[in-house]
Amino acid sequence: MSQGKQSFAERFLGAVKAIGAKIKSGVLFVIGKITGIFKKKKDDPGMIKDPVTGEMRPIARETTRRQYIWREMKKNKVAYLMVGPFLILFFIFTVLPVFLSMILSLTDFNMLQWPHFKGISNFQRLILDDEIFLIAARNTLIFAAITGPVSYLMALFIAWFINELPPKIRAVVTLVFYAPSISGGVYTIWGVLFSADSYGWANAVLLKLDVISKPILWFKNEDLVMPLCIVVALWTSLGTAFLAFIAGLQGIDHSLYEAAAVDGIKNRWQELWFITLPSMRPQLMFGAVLSITQSFGFGTVVTALCGFPSVNYAAHTIVHHLDDYGGQRYEVGYASAIAVILFAVMITANLVIKKALSKVGQ
Amino acid sequence: MKTSKLTRLLAFFLAVLCCVGSIVVIGSASAPASSEEPDEDAKEAASSIERMREYLDAISYSEYYNAYHDRAPGEADVAVDLTVPFQSVENLGKYAPYTASDLVAGLSVEDQKTAGVQYSARGSRLLSEMTDAELAALGVMSISDELKAGSVYLSDTGSVSFPVDVPSAGLYYIAIEYLTVPGTVNSVQRKLFINNSVPFSEASYLVFTKNWQYGYEIDEEGGKDFTRDLNGNDIQPELVQVNEWRTYVCSDSVGYLNGYFVFYLEKGNNVLTFEAEREAVIFGKIDVLAATEDSPFKATTMEKYLESVAHYPNGTEKVSKNAKTVIEAEMPDRVSDNSVFMTSDRTSAITSPSSAKAQLFNVIGAESYNTIGQWAAYNFTVSEDGLYNIAMRFQQSALQGMFVCRTIRLWSENRDPAAGVVYGEGDGVTSRIPTVPYEEAYKTRFDFSKKWQSRFIGDGDQEFLFYFNKDQQYTIYVEVSFGSLADQIQRVEASLREINAAYLSIIKLTGATPDQDRDYDFRINIPEAIYALNYEAVNLANIVEEFEALCGTNGSHLATLVTISNLLSTMGISEEAIAKNVTNLKSYLGTLGTWINDSKTSSMTVDKIVIQSGDAKKPKAKANFFQSIGFEIKSFVMSFFIDYDNMGVTRKESVSSDALHVWVAEGRDQSKIWRSIIDGSFTENTGIPVSLKLVTASTLLPSVLARSGPDVYLGLASATVINYAIRGAIDTIRGNDDFAEAVYGLDGTPNTADDVYSPAAINTLTLLNETYGLPLTMNFPMMYYRLDALVSLGVSAPTTWDEVLALLPILQSNNLEVGITYTLALDFFLYQNGGSMWKYEDNPEYAGAQVGLDTNEGLYAFQYCTRLYTDYGMPIDFDAANRFRTGEMPLVVSDYVGVYNTLTVFATEIKGLWEFTRIPATVRADGTKNYNSIASVGATIMLHGCKDPEAAWTFMKWQTSAETEATYGNRMVALIGPSAKYAAANLGAIKLLSWTTKERDAIEEQIRHLSSIVNYPGSYIIARYTNFAFLDVVNKSVDPVDAILSYVPAINAELTRKREEFDLKTLGVGETPPADAE
Q1: For domain B652-778+944-1004, which architecture applies?
Q2: Which site among A312, A313, A334 would you substitute to test the B interface, given the most B Cβ atoms closer than 10 Å to its Cβ?
Q3: CA B832 to CA B1008: how far, in whole Å?
Q4: pLDDT tens per residue, range B681-717
């Protein structure tokens, strides 16, 4: 059961990631490269090198845009053949489900029976008549607003600091910081640490010091759940983004720093802002996308530590809400509506971040 | 210095004050309980404590032996007349030993007297009084009149006493000729009382093994082979109980004693009482045999044995190199119980037989056949007279640096003493008892090595020689035993008990997490415990040294003992270290328990046994390089062609698409067992082919959606059944003509003696008067308790919640706890008080429309339940199995099969120290007691769109029938071990599963008191909101009634919303069902 509901959430995250990162940088880049090669080889008489941009463009101005694209595609059929398998799989397993769930969000699909069309009633109920969704939305925003930026900055600064270390030590320290996020379910250690049992570590220590007289139900206490989960989230968040930053930092051309020094850079902060960050903009973008999807999709850890649902919905996020309806209540239509909204929020957040990042170094 | 003395003085006064206080509390708490009902109940409780105490305090055999071993042996053998107790009813009563023995069944002493003493024998009778039909039912077909006259049938409950007139005071063996009767897979077990008391604790577990025989395929020449499936894989042959006369000489079933018990009997009349623990049995003869020096049960030495065989033909010479008899170990002729089975080994290319493609059985042992007392027997003949060695090809890689032991017993079939030495006692016609040829054979030793070994068997000092004669047929019994390690392991076990007792007395003083800075004055308060720590530290260190001397190496297995010994001496020497290390000690107790478990399971894998001369070449141990690499490559290549889906399929039609498609979401072992039962029984009898697929549970939903699901699915949880049913994915079974009969027995009505399933189980699968499946498994909580803890506190297991509450202060003042989760507590209080989770349950249309928590019963139950955790301070979150094991939580309420299985494998050191019983009752206002527990069910269902509903229904009925369920459950236990107990839903199956009589009584008693909660649409919301309400009470001290009432509207709203989705009738706030709805 949990497989099904999980995959919905994951698929959307995957879609965002893939659309952003892969289509743009991956597919277009490959096509561009390959077409470039073929152009050169064939030296097509119908093409001419644009004297201003240096790119090839057709001589025949009178062809329509569609004809032009078709001709280009025919010409580069080998390239399309090569990206074909990936595109087909990507379409079937990522793009199609996204569209499917948009359609399902307008129905009362229950996983077992044929769905009926319901119009926008799911969205109506979601926004106007679902208190729990509002709690979930609030919690999600708090999570995203705290863990997103904090983990992003943390990853960036720790990467920056680590980058200053000698290579061998750097490798070790990198592993240490990266370890929590690669070792899968390691966050369950927090479950032991803050177990509600009197043998839980935190409880045992506090009982011993006579701070408390009976065990605290850490993950079952409304007031404590949210802060604890945020701490755990930050602890596990130094993931792929962090590695990307380290790679980005190491890829920067050192001559830039020398040139900047000559040009009058005064301190490390200026160096960071004017040289380092702009030079690693692709990695920053990548890290930002990851950190948004992570902070919005943060649910597994909460479920593992607090149970499902968390006490009085204190750490109930949109992903939980989605799981709740998609898995436990067999209301996949409604769950799809939640997913669509989550999808929209993530896309928006991505656009905002992209805008913000373009300001780096200016 | 001065201040610290002052503090101590103050602390002392405070302590005295506290002590006085707690005594007053205990006094006041226990006083009303005893003064209210000074009647039967109290007496019953007192006598059951008394009985428990006697049982726990019984001395061990070694103590018994030390006390009596220098007494004279008895003068003469006496045959006991088994008919005496049955000659008249008075006789049965005269010797009836133990008035408390039937109290288990809830019969008071008075009742017993009025019901007549026959009750204490409960169905035990003389064979001569039974009709032929009754005898046939017991499997006794032909029996001589003489034998019949003296034999007695002992049923599986109650006890029977036999008087015996002993000619002189002295030491005796007790030998019993017995015939097993058809029953469960359990061995027969009896508790022996002599003159109304258990002489020593080991006598509580006398185990009479049954004989089991595998059903091999026999070819024309009499050769044995395994049945194969369509792909050429061997199939586990069926195991059949062979009922034949055997002789049992009372001995240690735990295996610490090599040899037989000697009993000291006074001159004159003695009474031997056998109390049933497991299984019925027929006793043919009981002999009380004088334990003289030349008794056949006293083993000689090998030296003397060789002298005694010297006068036989070729009695001093080794046989020639050609005289070789090879026995393939995977084909035993008899085994002791059904967990001795053959497996397939692929670690060596030369294990015979072996195949890269098919799975062939080629060894016996490994995970099975490793428990003390289990044996496998092989028949063989030899080709020459003379002295033989026995070579074995085996692998013993379980215990690093240790060795395992086997006892070798022999039996000669043709009993002609002139022809050669005769092994074993008895004449072979009515009884047989294989014996060791000499005492060294108890200690046949197999050393550790990661690789396969080939050795002549011996005790480490010498290789054993046996005299065999070519005209005789022999049987060799290879029995798992402790051998020379018995003493040490037994002492470690005793040591663990001492350390555990010390641990408990420490935490009684300090609590689970002691204050490290406090001075507890351990030496003054609990001097015995501190002494025990010191003593056991030295004791364990000594044992380690002895182990090292025995094994010759210092393996990693011993490191555990060294570590624990060090910790104990640290704690014993310095008082400050005690508080610091209490939690360490707790975890080491667990480690030590596991260590004992490991040491007790002496695993070894045997490929073949060769009877040959010591001068001839032993079988090859290891494959050479080319053989190995060739085998590995072949296996790798073949692994691409093996059809794992259809492993074990013996019928072609089962692979076809017309077959009934059945899915099961369990392990491979489970699906294999189902496969073989279906092929062997269902398809054989009905001709309906079945295709069985092993899937993961999450596959079902997508497959139903894609219309590619199975016809029948096994073991779907009842909540999911209702979820699927209401969405039209499951077909109702109520439409079948024989539905009522299939579910409620022949009379077709519920709540009668012949119900096939508990009505509570059917209830969870029923929605709107339609039933959507047959119950396959049924689990429910029961109460587990530690006998030793309760006895040391002088209390009996509570039977009502009031008693639990009265017990709490006593437990808590000793830092002990009661473990029950609040969800269970809530359900118990609700249903035991006559409440229900749902309103209007008697009106099918409106059942489930509103939650029943805002009724009087609901509010009372919730309030009562939260009080346990707020006022009484019971733990909310805990690891029940671990705390039960250490004894900190002597009362635990939990699912009967789950905890039972865990404790059986994981806490063997507390075996016999715990029991389970029905959960405590609520005493209702009218004085009646309600013991209801809550059932949870897994069902076999028929999915909508099933191609052949009739075949599917036939399959479902067969699959959930008593025989099928019992076969499955018993095979699981055989394959996986005693921890694989199966919670069958079929009430008839429970009788056939391997529970002890007492356990089964308790389970059946609880089944008579069961409720269940139907998962109506939207029910998920109830658990969620009651959890919130509960946590509000615990975390924020909200008033319980306010807390639950604040969530009831939200629950009802969700129920209404969910019901509207399915067009079910709903109720608004304050509405009740219309009166004309009926």
Answers
A1: 3-Layer(aba) Sandwich (3.40)
A2: A312
A3: 13
A4: 888 888 888 988 888 888 888 888 888 889 999 989 9
